[in-house]
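TA notes, week 10

Several of you asked for a full example with nothing omitted. So below is the full record: structure tokens for the whole chain, then the designed sequence directly under it. When grading your own attempts, check the secondary structure regions first.
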């Protein structure tokens, strides 16, 4: 199943999991092994949605070892409709080519799919002045028997949530992250605020050649949650907040809540998120390895359910008031709801 997001808010789900499936996953049938929700929104300041995403699941358990489950997000850049075209070409091209390169290993197929898609986008941009220098990020997650394989260019992100810890599995190809990685800028430096956060150092399309990061495969355990998002989400919501949201809500509520929260905080960009739950043991990694890269975990605090209920009710009232009399009266209620949620997370009680 593939969906390419365009204008406005779009939600897509594959099976609704129970609230506690990612804590104590039950035994499930093959069709329910991967439960996911994808939500995209144009945001509060943009007139068009340049994000795109796709979820393509293996047609059967027998075909899964070869096809895998493929989840992709992309964030387009360019004037006119160039960004929309670039991101759409990226998600369609990478998914299609990955499945076409059957003679290659999965790592080789994913790498080649991204490289060849870059060439296609670049050539399209060169052929039409309106699309010149169009580009897009790409973050692709492929769930296979060997584990979770990732192909990545740009600053869209892929996270894994396991045992109350959120881990970012991708490296942002942004000016800020590159300066930090090279040692020219420390995380606590006052200069960080002076470096533009939206400048990326790699993307598909602008150049004929592109450097692709291939990560993994990372072992998959039953109950693992994977989250893919564009910078419209990661730029507005901290990792600790993302962890708290997906720890406390089922995937279909968590994905929508994350996008709504990005909009409440200004919605300066398009926002897209895919949340996927490895609910069935059939798609877990059979043999765990000791070679997995050590990642810096983000601890999460769970809030009492009363805080979540209060927050959701206040947000609903805020949106209702906003529709009736405007943000002048609705915004204070929205702020109060977020403060309520923050108090619950800070309290840090654990509820399952």
């Amino acid at each position: 199943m593939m969906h390419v997001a365009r204008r406005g808010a779009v939600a897509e789900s594959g099976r609704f999991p129970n609230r506690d499936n990612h804590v104590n996953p039950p035994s499930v049938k093959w069709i329910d092994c991967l439960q996911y929700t994808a939500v995209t929104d144009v945001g509060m300041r943009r007139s068009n949605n340049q994000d795109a995403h796709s979820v393509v699941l293996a047609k059967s358990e027998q075909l899964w070892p070869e096809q895998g489950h493929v989840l992709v997000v992309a964030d387009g850049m360019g004037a006119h409709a160039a960004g929309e075209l670039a991101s759409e070409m990226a998600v369609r091209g990478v998914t299609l080519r990955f499945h076409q390169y059957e003679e290659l290993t999965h790592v080789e197929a994913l790498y080649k799919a991204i490289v060849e898609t870059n060439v296609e986008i670049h050539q399209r941009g060169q052929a039409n002045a309106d699309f010149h220098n169009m580009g897009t990020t790409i973050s692709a997650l492929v769930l296979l028997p060997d584990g979770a394989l990732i192909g990545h260019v740009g600053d869209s992100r892929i996270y894994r949530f396991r045992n109350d810890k959120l881990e970012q599995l991708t490296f942002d190809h942004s000016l800020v992250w590159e300066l930090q990685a090279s040692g020219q800028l420390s995380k606590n430096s006052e200069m960080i605020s002076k470096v533009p956060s939206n400048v990326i150092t790699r993307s598909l399309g602008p150049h004929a050649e592109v450097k692709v990061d291939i990560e993994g495969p990372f072992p998959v355990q039953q109950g693992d949650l994977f989250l893919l998002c564009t910078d419209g989400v990661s730029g507005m919501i901290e990792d600790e907040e993302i962890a708290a949201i997906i720890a406390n809500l089922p995937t279909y509520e968590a994905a929508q809540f994350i996008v709504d929260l990005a909009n409440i905080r200004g919605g300066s960009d398009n926002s897209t998120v895919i949340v996927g739950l490895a609910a069935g043991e059939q798609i877990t990694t059979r043999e765990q390895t000791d070679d997995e890269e050590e990642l810096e975990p983000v601890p999460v605090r769970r809030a009492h359910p009363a805080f979540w209920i209060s927050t959701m009710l206040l947000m609903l009232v805020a949106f209702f008031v906003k529709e009736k009399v405007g943000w002048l009266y609705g915004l204070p209620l929205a702020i109060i709801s977020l403060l309520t949620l923050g108090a619950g997370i800070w309290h840090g009680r654990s509820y399952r």
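The CA atoms of residues 259 and 271 lie 6 Å apart. Use that as a sanity check on your answer.
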